[in-house]
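In response to the reviewer comment on reproducibility (Comment 2.3), we provide here a single inverse folding case reported in full, input and output, so that an independent group could reproduce the run without further information from us. The structure tokens appear first.
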């Protein structure tokens, strides 16, 4: 199953809020749902999947392994627990949520466990999240490029992450852009507002169109049905070269996800 280019993120959503967002998203046409162990909402997402009239086989479901579960002995049991919470036999994609802090768990140990999870039928694909170019090179040496479906990284007009994106696209690794709307900051940017006005749309749709036109997968989140629908209906091929040039000038390296265990960024 090809990963749908527009997905529904669930970061910061918990309980009934997460459940309602996923139910509404599936009803509107989303077929790609993104969650993670650390989000503490896998159970709510699972309830939403069961409530929805959409068949599970038609949904591309992603979860992520948290740093405390990256060891060979912990990874598969933690993934099995995630599957239990989600109420499904397998997920379509399992990511290493963050590289092991200070390389406490060797990358080969984690990737070998993930490959074992594929053999066991627990996940159909594996990938990375928040990996630098150097860390991706290491992963490729261990499992090869074909084994790595995506690197999920923060990308939005104010953090364009071009070095990592170029490496991914050169090596056939899909880029999944999280926080594509920069926690809503795109809505107040004058450049994006001006472009949006030209096309009678919103700055959010412009930011998403910019990412989609560059071949990236996007996973915006929302609890509002109107916004969920708006994000899903973004028009590709809308922006001109002049629009792209204006958006590229907005890059200021503004990283929003930067915990103290982050790798040394590119």
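Designed residues, in position order:
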């Amino acid at each position: 199953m090809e990963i749908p280019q527009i997905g529904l993120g669930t970061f910061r959503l918990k309980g009934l809020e997460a459940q309602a967002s996923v139910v509404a998203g599936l009803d509107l046409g989303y077929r790609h749902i993104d969650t993670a162990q650390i989000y503490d909402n896998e159970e709510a997402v699972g309830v939403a999947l069961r409530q929805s009239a959409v068949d599970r086989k038609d949904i591309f479901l992603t979860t992520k392994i948290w740093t405390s579960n990256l060891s060979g002995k912990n990874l598969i049991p933690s993934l099995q627990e995630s599957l239990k919470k989600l109420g499904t036999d397998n997920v379509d994609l399992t990511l290493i949520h963050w590289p092991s802090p200070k390389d406490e768990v060797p990358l080969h140990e984690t990737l070998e466990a993930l490959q074992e999870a594929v053999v066991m039928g627990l996940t159909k694909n594996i990938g990375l999240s928040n990996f630098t170019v150097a860390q991706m090179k290491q992963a490729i040496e261990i499992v090869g490029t074909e084994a790595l479906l995506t690197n999920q990284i923060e990308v939005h007009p104010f953090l364009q992450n071009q070095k990592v994106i170029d490496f991914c696209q050169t090596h056939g690794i899909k880029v999944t852009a999280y926080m594509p709307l920069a926690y809503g900051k795109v809505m107040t940017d004058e450049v994006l507002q001006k472009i949006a006005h030209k096309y009678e749309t919103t700055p959010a749709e412009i930011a998403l169109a910019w990412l989609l036109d560059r071949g990236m997968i996007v996973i915006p989140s929302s609890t509002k049905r109107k916004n969920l629908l708006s994000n899903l209906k973004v028009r590709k091929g809308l922006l001109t070269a002049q629009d792209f040039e204006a958006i590229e000038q907005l890059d200021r390296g503004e990283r929003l996800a930067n915990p103290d265990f982050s790798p040394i960024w590119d």
